[in-house]
Amino acid sequence: MLRNYLKVALRNILKHKMFSLINVFGLSVSIATCLLIILLIYGQKKVDSFHKERNRIVRVLSMDETRSFASTPLPLAPILLEEYPHIIEDAVRIKSSFVGGDVVYGNNRIPLAGRYTDDSFFRIFSFKLIKGDVATVLEAPFSIVLTKESAEKIFGKEDPIGKSVRLNDIGLNTMDIDLIPTENTETLLGDFVVTGVVDNTLPSHIQFEFLISMSTIPSLVKEGKSQATFDGWKNYFDSYLYVLLREGRTDKDLAPILANISKERYAAMEDMKISFGSEQLAQITPGAFHQNPISLRMPIEAIYFLSFLGLVVLFSACFNYVNLSFARSLTRSKEVGVRKTMGAARYQVFTQFIIESVIIALLSLVVAIGLLQVLSVVFLGLWINQFLILDLTPDLMLFVLFIGFSVLVGCLAGLLPASFLSSFTPIKALRNFSGISLGNGKRFTLRKGLVLVQFCASLFFIITTLLIFSQLNYLLEKEYGFDQGNMVNIKLQGIEYEALANELRQNPAIQTISASSFVPGTGGYSGSTEIKTLQMPDADLTSSYIGIDQNFIPNLKLSLIAGNNFSASIPKKDETMVVVNEALAQLLGYKEPKSIVGETILMGKDQSAVQVIGLTGNFIFDLLTEAEQNEPLLLRYLPNEFAFMNVRYHGTSDISSMLTFMEEKWKKLDKAHSFKYELYEDELKATNSIFTDMMYILGFISFLAVTIASLGLLGMSAFTVESKKKEIGIRKVHGAGVRHIALLLSNSYLWLFALAILITIPITYFINTLWLEEISYRVNFSIWIIAAGIGIMFVLGSSSVLSQTVKAAMNNPIKGLREE
Amino acid sequence: MLLQLRNIFKWVNSGGQRLFLLKDINLNVEEGEFISVMGPSGSGKSTLLNVIGMLDNFDEGEYEFLHEPVHTLKEKHRANLYKEYIGFVFQSYHLLDELTVKENLEMPLLYKKFKGTERRAMVADMLDRFNIVGKKDLFPTQLSGGQQQLVGVARALIANPKLILADEPTGNLNSAQSEEIMGLFKQLNSEGVTIIQVTHSEKNAAYGSRVINLLDGRMIK
Ligand SMILES: Nc1ncnc2c1ncn2[C@@H]1O[C@H](COP(=O)(O)OP(=O)(O)O)[C@@H](O)[C@H]1O
Ligand SMILES: [Mg+2]
Prior knowledge:
A: alpha+beta, six-stranded mixed beta barrel, B: Rossmann fold, 10 strands
């Protein structure tokens, strides 16, 4: 029986080529999109699934009034362990502040980043310890556990156990992102004994290149090399806490305990409204975003968002299947009639049609798996994904999932048509075959409804894509207020600034050099500080600041409106002078900003008085996507905070040879760190990458939505034309023109399209305004964007419909009549 | 007695009026009969055949098939009854275009839960009997009308029905093809199969043992 169904299904697929092609195309592209998302979710689900105790491991979170933090205060762990042993079996802290720097062994200096953690680490987590004793590796102070990879880098083939390495902390970032400037200082932490080697290749949200025993910290504190306090509750940014619950306990048992502790500790503090929450290990990836994350992961909202997009195109493709199946039910009704007179029961006919749609879905799966190869490469190439640890390698289980998914899609698409077609009574089906038309009434409304939904979705996505496109263009062309052309920014990474500058000046291609604490517009961290004037001592105002040298203002070609720049002879310590921007002058109440020059203002917590010596125009120094209009800024001379060198070169110079020169000089001065630089113009462009990503993703989805909808229209009109051949013939014989007939056949779609516009435009406007208003520097959501979206959809849709209807209208009428 | 219709009425409501499709039909059919139903177009011949074939309902009267009161049976039971005992032959053959001759013959057997080996034997037997072994792998569109109807008859016959209902089986055929089909019916009848056919042709009616005339849904003598 099954074989018979399969045979008939395949023959039908081959026979109705247009039907099959439209459906296989739509389903394969949408299934491919969904497979990518399944792959993504599957990869995320695998993260941390290797821990044996994963069901009992819970991470504790800190919560203030509005946000949640992944980190918690250091003293929380001992309290939990001591006072609630009946619920908490074990706990491990991972200190969040970075221990990053050079691991030195003999002549080998390898920059690595690691973390401090308690000795319970390997008892709670199942990271595989290749060498060393689980019970003791992280017990003694100054113990270090290396990952296999790190061990190979440092020791090559030598056995690292028992060997001693020297750690030089320069605050290397464990998250492998450079948004936060590395500190300019270097701390020699001391000599550490390698006690273990760990294999951390299995995916985990806890990333490290080495681990150091938490017991090291008290010694470091004594030596003044660490400010960590083990009894302070105010700092909840410094450490992550994972607890192992006792067998049979859940986070429900944990909640009241955490509530008690936070009440006890924070009730007395007026300015701290902290409470604690928790989440299961499995909820972390994929999971909700928390501030101060231990590693960057795809937030679950992104997965929801992508899944939503995937489902939209999937449903659109299914709608095509439903619609086209209804449209051609006439051609299948004879078959149903015959089968039923020959004794087929309804469920048998139903099964047959479901099998047919499942086969179409499986066929689409084959195509989709091919498409997936391309799609996943393109997806991984998106800017955002360089920060995420994504594993898209498929395994056998995934293929089972894929097949299951496709069968489900097939059933979904085939459900309505199959139940409709199998409901025909034999006599009706056979009589219909000879004239009375099917698919009127309720089903006709359903079909129109589905087309309407497709129209709406297509319109929404086209307009949104166009909007993002114009926003991106706006951002790319926005003037920052300084000149980013012909500049390179070099990360200092603790190097001696003057020494490097002197070396670089030897190259004639290099024009001017300056230094700063962060690079304006690149998303680097700008410090903020309190400011006041003598006239308004009670004001509660803050301003961002940037640390710069004397050359910074001319080098970036900032406009100095009044007063002076810092002079060359300015003392390196004891800040007494400051340059401000117009917004700051206005913030401090100077209606005429120029008049602030020469005034004294109070700065910082200790309200030190500084003199304003210069006034610059406003320029954008935050990320363009996050910046507010006219933000106040202090430009301070802070040589200790220099983290970047800004190099302006002659526009005519050969950039690559200049960069080679720079790298050579860098290597001469710093053997350990690699030369890190960005071309300023490119770096600023890249800050808009999130919009580029969004544009690619939504552009792709719109393309699919529109193509699928257009193909659906094409198929539908082909069937309409087919079933109205006779009517068209009769009308033409009686003198109807091509235009009249084409319009007659396309009319209903026109109305649907108009309705779709009425429904979609307000929704599109509303939803897009939500995110657009979050951005200060934004385009107008103009009527032209909407009009362009409608235009594109109209052209594509109407050409699909007209290609069929016009052809039919132009046919010789006799042909239509004769074939009846 | 194979079947018995007593005072069968069938109507549709149209514009507030009852439009009678069948009026007071009384008919006894013995096993082994060969009946021809005749009458002008629209007189209710197909309707009558569909009622007998249990594909269509009637509104009044009683219908017994092999002593089972059809009018009281549930849909499913009725379907089982016609599945087992009745074969249908249509004017426009109604072979499935996607299936080969062999598969078309096999199709009714699939729904009657015959095993694979049984099915193959029965199909082979039919192909043999109708002399169409050479055409078994062709699709209906590759056959002439007469050959298609031959397959149609073979398909109706394959599960050994007691009754064959044929609605204008030769309506689309030329006279030579018609004669072949009629000859076949005659032969089947002589082998014990009961046949009720609708026909417009006196010549075809002559093959049968009895003629029923319909006019406006009423049997006339
Ligand atoms: N379900 C129905 N609804 C309305 N009219 C019907 C229906 N079935 C049959 N008829 C009408 O009943 C009459 C008899 O039809 P039919 O039995 O097909 O006639 P015949 O086969 O003798 O040509 C025709 O006029 C036909 O239009
Ligand atoms: Mg008829």
